[in-house]
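Hi all, long-time lurker, first post. I run a small reading group and we've been trying to get comfortable going from sequence to structure in the token notation. Rather than ask abstract questions, I figured I'd post a concrete chain and ask someone more experienced to write out its structure so we can walk through it together at our next meeting. Sequence below, copied exactly:
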Amino acid sequence: MIEREQWYTNKELWEQLNSLRADFKDLRHEMQETRNVIRKYNGLREELGIVKEKVERIEAKTEGKKTVLEAVRLWGGWLFAFLTLIILMIQHF
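-- Answer (accepted) --
Happy to help. Here is the structure in token form:
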């Protein structure tokens, strides 16, 4: 005849169940904290993207101004010489 022994008493099972319940409660709390951290991180990434776009626009404006000023510096003398030549030719004739 096979004897059926209980591995745990009802009290031990109850204590284990309560322990599991507490562990699950802690786990749910940690998961909620993780979700909050992820939400904050995603918000920071969006803000970083906005700031990055603004910086790129500012850099593009600065580069454009630099290019225009460089062109004026390089071609300004030629333009002045050409205008002076035209004025002198008009005055001569």
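A couple of things your group might point at:
The two ends are 135 Å apart (CA to CA).
The mean pLDDT is 90.
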